[in-house]
Amino acid sequence: MGIYHLLWLIPALPLLGFLILAIFGLKMPNRAIGIIGCASIGLAALLTIIIGINFLTSPPTGNFYQQTLWTWFSVHGFSPAISFYLDPVSLIFTFVVTFVSFLIHWYSTEYMRGDEGYPRFFAYMNLFVFSMLTLVLANNLLLLYLGWEGVGLCSFLLIGFWYKEQENCYAARKAFIVTRFGDTAMIIGLFLLVKNFNTLNIQDILTKAPSLWQPGATTAFWAAILLLGGALGKSAQLPLQTWLPDAMAGPTPVSALIHAATMVTAGVYLIARMHVLYELAPVVQLIVAIIGAATLLIAGFSALAQRDIKRVLAYSTISQIGYMFLALGVGAWSAAIFHFMIHAFFKGLLFLAAGAVILAMEEEHDMFKMGGLRKKMPVVFWTFLFGSGALAAIPIITAGFYSKDQILFFALASTKGSFWLWLCGFVGAFLTAIYTFRMVFVTFFGEQKKEVHRKPTNSIKIPLIILGILSLIAGFIEIPKAWGNFAPFSSLMNKVMPQVQLAAGMENKEVLLEVITGIIALLGVYLAWQFCLKSPKVLYNFKTTGLGRFIDKFFFKGFMFDQLYDIILVRPVVWLSKIDKRDFVDRIYEAIGNLGLLLNKIFSRTQNGYLRWYVCGLVLGMAVALTIILFV
Amino acid sequence: MMTHIPPNEGLLLAAILFLLGLIGVMTRRNIIYILMCIEIMLNACGLAFVSAGAKWMQADGQVMFIFILAMAAAEVSVGLALILQMHNQHKSVDVNVLNQLKD
Amino acid sequence: MNVIFYIASIIAIMATIMVITGRNAVHSLLFLTVSLLAVGVVFFTLGAPFMAALEVIIYAGAIMVLFVFVVMMLNLGKAYEKMEESWFSYKAWLGPGILCVILLGELIYVFTVTKGSSQPLTVITPQEVGMSLFGPYILGVELAAMLLMAGIIGAYHIGRKKQKEYHRFLQKEEESV
Description:
A: two-stranded antiparallel ribbon; 72% helix
């Protein structure tokens, strides 16, 4: 048990790194900053791996380990603790967060070189990792909420990292405000849970909930849907997805870390963590599945029309998280977490590779101005290709195939699944293959349009290679049932999560589905090749027609959600605040201010510099005090 | 010598002297007079201590008077030096000349 | 003995009134000396002969001599007496007077409310004062010694020479103007 006692160090190390960098960062040389920033995360990752191996070889009793550091506060019997909870789910999340973060930090030492905000960047990043680890390791929902808001804050700080450009600040504000809607719903949900259980301890809630609520109970419905609201905001799902594409304003490692690999999956984690609640509210679970399906389609279509390489990736992130929500919605908890892990590898890789390309192109984001980089940047090209393959779920050789295929199978085969959910996921897979390889072909093939400005160094190449290998082989830890009985990941998950309930007669359809999915992915790649490389004229001609232009614009603007929200939310609020510019509440505060000014005028008269006047004031005060003492 | 002293008369005299000194501080503009009035007030305080000490038949009141005496001596020496400087620099003993510390 | 107390009290009050209403600084100083001597007598009647002696020697003697020296050095003359006359207005006395009358009323009220019994006079000898001074109050004595030291050094430093008319910052301003 010895090693488990070091669990607290995993979040504490990044916090320490943050504190050092925040306090002394400005006075340190950049090299030391990079070392501290990476080492804190690296040690945390190492510790996680050691603890993880220990956990796998000799699991603690009950498959969990809990470490309570101290009681946070205690009010009227409600006393949340600063306490960490390690079980297979949080172990996987902790591993992915620390490991991918470490690679991204390493990469950032090179990527951010020469930026004047170097210490600030690493301080924020370390704070982010600390918050995320608090989120996933928390044993109660209040501590989870602390981490939740912490990652929200860091996301705001990092999106607006280059704050001198106003657009970045707007993007940061948008991300903060949009997620605020979800977070408000979530905190109301927490209040509801406290009212019902008088505790926020996750395990207590999960064990008590089935005895308190019948399946389909109204309170369970509200609690589940309010928590879902928080998850939708953080994970950028419909209808709160609009912030994520704009969040690409931050530096590329930030996009990789926050908006792809880790933070946005906090919603997935929350729902997986509270799975009992969702099983008690089947309506909400269905909503989760529908939202996931709708989001993955909308984001997929939007990604087709993007020109900015990072925005394509952003929409693909939304789409892939849509898959995870779909899996959660059909009760395939393990599949969702599996896809999370694989997605973290390949999406982190894709963003980092895109960052290397952007660096080489002198901050050029438009992929139609790149092209032909295959020969100039072979390492980046090959790793990017691996990541794209995983994203597009190219059969057998990539990890993404195994995770996505599992989700698609369960979407159809689970008792909670249906043909329509499967169809959405299936079309989504097709779209994914198209937009992913459109991106690959446009960026790396064709004629070269711009010179390579800055060659990637080892600090960039090595993380890419590691993630590239993982994008290929990480899927082999979960072989489909039809191929053989080798699934250590889901057997680990199933220790704490319920297994998927398969509908009758579905077991043997898995191979068929795999074949179809594989074919559709390859077909998507072929189409991308056909229209982007071989005969781009066809697409160009289509775009110049009226309908084509409309569809292009509609997809490019992400189904016009921004415009819709502008009309139904932003403008009414602005209008209301304009007509209510001088309401009476303001008057009260103005009056207080004016009273202060008036008193200032009166009393400053008494400061006339005459000694005798001051003595008179003293004596008057003495008389008043004596009167009060004697007669009152 | 077996006389009885009234308990409060000494304190009353101290109060009257103190207030007379206070009136002087508040009304006079000549800084020498202000210093004199402060002496009167200090002396009245000493008187209050001594009469209180007499009432309780304790030596502490008189000890306090000695402290006040020491303080008055120190205060007068510094105060008079300040008056000399003031007269040197401003050619005046009017405290209203020294009103430059207002806001 | 009581008669002596009352007579001395009246003399002290009258002399003090003469001090605060005086026009001539030297005259006021003499009245102040009278007042202090009268208070010395009051000390004697209160059974504090040692304090009476100190009052006469230090207050009426040493401190007043200092005052007289300073007044002589300033050599204010007739012009100042006229100026005092002009400062001596009814308006300047009204407010402080009222305030002090209120305070006096309140203090008299306190003394009448807490009327204790009169008690026999006990003389507290210098020996007792000395025992107390160098017993429980030894720390106070040391502090008083330091205070006197500070007073001497301060007086020497401040009164040493004719200093510049302005503070150095003000002087710079003056030069630039």
